Amino acid sequence: MGPSRISKAFQGLTITGLASVGAFFVWTKHCHFTPADQFTPATEPLFQSSWYKKFNPLQNPTTHDECVRRLPLFKLRPELVEDAQKGGSKLVEAFSQGIWGGPGYTIQRLYLERKWRNNTTTAHQLWDPKDLKSSTYDKGTEITDHFVVLDKTPTSILIRCGDSPLNNPDANRPSDGLFEISATMDFDKGFAEFRLKSIFYQGDPEIKDKTAEPMPPTMAYLHQLYTKLWMESAMGHVKQ
Q: Domain of life of the organism in this record (predicted)?
């Protein structure tokens, strides 16, 4: 199953509307995807992580990709550059804030809010833009009943996606995936590099055909466009 039907629907809905305008492709022209033969289970450390092994123990096939965007350091908010020089995590936090609190996630956020937000089981989660734009996304943070932070380093935030974090929080599940947000600075070359890594899979039951990816080609393409939307909309939160 891989990504949830909700995610699939909103990827298609959001991108279809933007693509009809045409400006979307110009707006996201600086985003690119790592070649498929360079982002594989054999080359990407995320596939060897304890999280991936825990939540995809049956080694079911995946749909996976990595989106990359660079930005000159002089375009970044000065306090983010200063913090990175000290080994801080403000850059990846600001990047994450821009994704979840930015316009790229608005339609999906509003739908999930209408469907799942309540004063009991999901009251502790992040829902409002002001909170999404100010959270530091520490381990355990739950986002709109669809994402949860599994781990965090000064340059990366690892998120589980595909279903409510309240469902099977410690076990594999039919709709599952890992989503890593990372941001690093190369002071010698004068740029910051932002990456969005996605690995989608069906955690349960076992898939006999290990070549059958959870996303058909059309949906995988829409997912990549949606990822570009998240990436580019987040840039507004890290720029000065």
A: Eukaryota
